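One-letter codes give the sequence; backbone shape is given numerically. An example follows:

. . .
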Amino acid sequence: MGFMEWWDGFWATYNTVIFSIGVNAMLALSIYVTLSCGLLSLANAAFMGIGAYTASLLTMQFEMPFPIALAAGGLLPSLVALVIGIPTLRLSGVYLAMATLGFGEVVRVIVLNLDITGGPMGLNGVPPITEWWHIVLLLGVTIYALARLRRSKIGRAFEAIKEDEIAARLMGVNVAGYKLLAFVIGAAIAGVAGGLNAHFTFTIGPNNYGFENAVDILTMAVFGGTSNLIGPMIGSTILSLLPEVLRHFKDFRLAINGLILILVVLYLPKGIWDPRRIRAFLGRNAEKKVK
């Protein structure tokens, strides 16, 4: 069997998993933005759903070009985030998490009762437009933009707010404005990810963007680590692959998945990718070699 035949077989078997890794990486990065500003938000699954339905309706009902549909899928969630963020972001910690979780349920109920969204049945027959290079391109653009943002004045303001909001305010940082900006950026990324996801799964429904999905997105970022951009991508990749790796364990798969998460939280509280811990580990190994 030649390489091309092997690759065709591999791609036919695992293309869904590979696509999911890319989309989940974007979702993990979307919540990384809000976490980098100290915001514990559970609204990203709802923003993903808004983006998915917006992009799908534009391609199905109005036959809009895919790039325009994706752009709208990112724009509408960001506008919604702007509207709800102004009153909501006055809250913090668990109160903000509860408020954004409530927003997610409101979105789910609205989608559940609208005819244009297909109601409980969702949308079926979404055109399979998403190609692998769409995901690679948009993920690359997202990583580049967030890396530049992290090194900019805005990124430094995010970090200051996360470390000490009161001190940042006393230093003249517009805390409310920067929090709102982080919230809007995260919503836009999640919306684009939802549009990409909808156009390779062919079908979407209101239950795809509920509480469990919100927790999954948060878990991917925290699992990998939120100290830099690498952590959320590692976390999303591992958690996307775990169901496939553990498939042979059948009924024990969810238990093993949960056990792995518990061990990481207990022994690696800053996530798998913690640059300080890695540098310290490499430093100790270097000292041992010298001795």
